[in-house]
Amino acid sequence: MFKKLIVSFLCSIVVACTVFGGFCLLYFAIPSQKAKASISLPSTVEDSENAAESTTEDTDSENKNVYVADVYQSLTLRSEASADSDAITDLEPMTHLEVLEFTAGTNYAYVEVLSGEKKSYKGYVNSDYITKLGEPTVRIGTEE
């Protein structure tokens, strides 16, 4: 009889704690109407490093062929329009590029780098790995 009383007491404690925890979760997790009204989010989200660059780039590159490096790891900037040519550098994912010319008979484009540490570098990239700015990206390569 004493064991049943202890088990019943402990069960009622567990139920009471669960109910109390639920009320606390609702009270603290759901913002009030006043809090919801005071929240304002920016219309676009930008990386803090690219925010300053993008304001000047937007005005300069309105009429240009701006593309992004649509890769997971890196995109190789080469000295010639060939996979066998010397690599100049590796570009980070989502680096902005201005396409100066698509090389006829190859899948390479002659580009100038518009953003990041490699800004103003010129060379050739495989055009399969770039996407026009504003279009959905594919992110070719592995996600490692």
TrEMBL record:
<keyword id="KW-1133">Transmembrane helix</keyword>
<feature type="compositionally biased region" description="Acidic residues">
    <location>
        <begin position="46"/>
        <end position="60"/>
    </location>
</feature>
<feature type="domain" description="SH3b">
    <location>
        <begin position="61"/>
        <end position="134"/>
    </location>
</feature>
<keyword id="KW-0449">Lipoprotein</keyword>
<dbReference type="InterPro" id="IPR003646">
    <property type="entry name" value="SH3-like_bac-type"/>
</dbReference>
<feature type="region of interest" description="Disordered">
    <location>
        <begin position="40"/>
        <end position="62"/>
    </location>
</feature>
<feature type="transmembrane region" description="Helical">
    <location>
        <begin position="6"/>
        <end position="30"/>
    </location>
</feature>
<protein>
    <submittedName>
        <fullName>Prokaryotic membrane lipoprotein lipid attachment site profile</fullName>
    </submittedName>
</protein>
<keyword id="KW-0812">Transmembrane</keyword>
<keyword id="KW-0472">Membrane</keyword>
